[in-house]
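On clarity, I found the account of how folds are encoded harder to follow than it need be. What matters is that the chain and its backbone geometry are given together, residue for residue. I therefore recommend that a typical entry be quoted early in the introduction. An entry of this sort, consisting of the sequence and the corresponding backbone structure tokens, reads as follows:
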Amino acid sequence: MFEHINTLTLRVVFTAEGKGELPLYLGSTLRGIMGHCIREFVCTRPNVQCHKCELSPDCAYAKNFCSPGNEAGAVNPYVIHSLTRDKLRWEPQDECQFDITLIGDATEHAGLFIDALLDMENKGWGSARLPFRLQQIIDPERQALIWSSSKLWMRNCLPRPLSCEQRRAHTAVVRFDSPVRILVSKQLRRQLTFAEMIHSLTRRIALLSHAYTGHILQWDEQAMLNEANKIRTVAADWKQVDFERYSMTRGGKLPLPAIKGWAQYEGDLTPFTPILKAGEQLHIGKNATIGFGHYQVNYN
């Protein structure tokens, strides 16, 4: 259903080379360091804001980190998923693992992201400026080495179509292992109906498709939502997560209230299973780039 969208996941392993503290959730920290690296590589006008720079349409930093002038909306062509979570104190040799999934056009620039990952060794992480050493980059789906011990195998950076087959299902449990932020009328949803999930997912997938493949998805959104509204929530457990990230633009901490938990849905889920499968890779809701909105689905 979404085979026109290519994806490439890089699984990255760093080890700490010092002692200190980092935020419990690392997605924002990782994105920030990577963005600094790429901007230093490519930006020739560092004193000009991206949205005001006439070079931004062809700038690798702007296209991947600021999305200036996207007709489809402000979405970035990658998501980070931190596999190391809830760790505050760091000691030498502690491992940090995370996935970065490149989406659409970004898969053609994997080399730029790998260069940034290598350069992250030269940056201190977090306010404590902790040093880290890159150990390995792999493609986790193919179990293929991409970088290890100073050797690079670019031939193993092989994007694959986002293949999401339909399956029969009447019951689904959707469990989030990262915070999720879905806003309705600018208000954070404290629990998620199935229709709200589908509305958020279809919007995000359509924006990514348009912005980074040029393909406009044709579907009857209202008919889809009418069917999604028939799906029942039979069990759920949600809690609010108070999250903050540092914003260079605002020069301080930016609150990002979110929720975390799970829900069990029942009804004719079959036509929605490709959308839910795509969302497992592309994430859902706001701040997906830093890893929010990552979930897994299990069916009956």
In short: The first strand starts at residue 2 and ends at 16. The chain has two domains: 2-161, 164-299. The chain is about 25% helix and 30% strand.
